[in-house]
Design goal:
Layout lengths: L2 H13 L1 H9 L1 H4 L7 H8 L3 H6 L4 H12 L4 H11 L10
Helix pairs in contact: 1-2, 1-6
Length: about 100
């Protein structure tokens, strides 16, 4: 359970479509070997952008993971993504 581990999962999920799909479809299996808390697993499985941001993940990694799950860039994606982050403030980005 570390910000590094959570950020690493986001990075790998953004780079590997099959991992991102697995995280959403069957998070228990896709994340079985990862040292994550139950809350982190739940946030990843639900693609809960707000919860992940509040857990301190890097915004760049979070955006790219969410974009991978969306399948493509669109203005609708951007509006939905930003709505999930509304009212939050940027925190310390160190992992």
């Amino acid at each position: 359970m570390s910000k590094y581990t959570l950020n690493r999962v986001l990075w790998e999920g953004a780079a590997k479509p099959e991992l991102a799909r697995g995280i959403v479809e069957d998070p228990d299996t896709a994340l079985a070997t990862r040292d994550l808390s139950d809350a982190e697993r739940a946030a990843l499985g639900a693609a809960d952008v707000r919860a992940l941001f509040e857990m301190g993940v890097h915004p760049f990694l979070l955006y790219n993971f969410a974009l991978r799950l969306a399948g493509r860039f669109s203005m609708e994606f951007v509006h939905e993504y930003l709505a999930q982050l509304e009212g939050l403030e940027l925190r310390d980005l160190r992992t």
